[in-house]
Amino acid sequence: MISPVEITKRQLTLTTHRIHTLPVVVLMPHSRCNCRCVMCDIWKANRNGYELSPDDLAAHLDDFRKLNVRWVVLSGGEALMHPNLFALCDLLKDLDIKITLLSTGLLLKRYAAETVEFCDEVTVSLDGSRAVHDAIRRVPRAFDRLAEGVAALKTRDSGFRVTARCVVQRANYIDLPNVIDAAHEIGLDQLSFLAADVTTEAFNRPAPWDAKRAGEVALSLDEVNDFERLVEDVIDRYAGDFASGFIAESPAKLRRLPRYFAALHGQGDFPETRCNAPWVSTVIEADGTVRPCFFHGPLGNIHEQSLEAILNAEAAQAFRRALDVRRDAVCRRCVCTLYLCPTASL
């Protein structure tokens, strides 16, 4: 249960734009990835091989304590490629922090014992049924290795929570019902969906994609119309999965997906954004770069300043003070929002 003091600190952060408490940190411990996904450019930087060492993290644990970080999400690249990932987790566990591992699933079987010991839950990327998933990941047996990894986790601990996220794009939107069936087949606990980002510099893009590259991932207008009909069919056919929460989104939220792709073509507005990520979370990348979220520009680097100093520098406070997420061009097109109310427990 969240304490009254923490609630007050969260409220102060939202009203003063100074970070008094930081519930969520997204940590990218390793920059490399073991997939070559169509909709992501992270793997193109594999030659760089940036990573955060245990000493890098330990240097900022006092700020984690001071800011009362309660939840760390290990993102990437593929975090399991980090040679000392579980040493990082051990440092976080000493602070009683919840750890969620985001993973391609390819290495879960190999590291099942350590993952169950050091992490609280895993979210895997599931892009479709077997053939579709493998084609998007561009890795042989990606689907089967993912399924084997989930099975290995569940064998270690049948109650260990493993969820999946599906990034909807041109190569898999038509496979939507099969994604749900595949999630059941693999034995996942929940499945969520979000649209592919095609408009920002996130995910190792040196610049936003041009129209040709974006068109390889985003849906065409004709495909948007097909997708709208398919979404309605899924809402009808999988009513039980919506009711049980197996599908994380409500029917209304699922309908936002075709609306998003339509808006990319100037057909209607983008779905309204409700997000306070820059006030309740931060992203720390493998080279030490600190961002307010995945999609906005850098605030500083932990190799040069403390985390608290970066987040509460005048420039960072001014950024939050001026940010109107309902009107900001980046926020309006955001595919991955976070809203945490002051009284929410993690």
Question: What do these coordinates show?
Answer:
The chain has 346 residues and is α/β, with parallel strands linked by helices. Helices cover 40% and strands 12% of the residues. The chain contains 17 helices and 9 strands. It has helices spanning 4-16, 54-58, 61-66, 85-93, 112-118, 130-137, 142-156, 176-186, 211-215, 221-237, 239-244, 251-254, 256-264, 277-280, 307-311, 314-322, 329-332, and strands at 24-27, 71-74, 98-103, 121-125, 161-168, 190-195, 281-284, 289-291, 300-301. The chain has a 9-stranded mixed sheet with strand order 6-5-4-3-2-1-7-8-9. It is globular, with a radius of gyration of 20 Å. The termini are close together. The mean pLDDT is 93.
Structure characteristics:
346 residues, 12% strand
Q: How big a fraction of the residues is strand?
A: 5-15%
- Anisotropy-based shape: globular
The sequence of SSEs as H and E is HEHHEHEHEHHEHEHHHHHHEEEHHH
Low-confidence stretches: none
Biggest β-sheet description = 9 strands, mixed
State the helical fraction.
Answer: 25-40%
Mean pLDDT: 93
Structural class: alpha/beta
Q: From the alpha carbons, calculate the radius of gyration and give it in angstroms.
A: 20 Å
The number of E-state strands comes to 9
- State the distance separating the first and last CA atoms: 9 Å
The side-by-side strand order for the widest beta sheet comes to 6-5-4-3-2-1-7-8-9
Helical run tally: 17
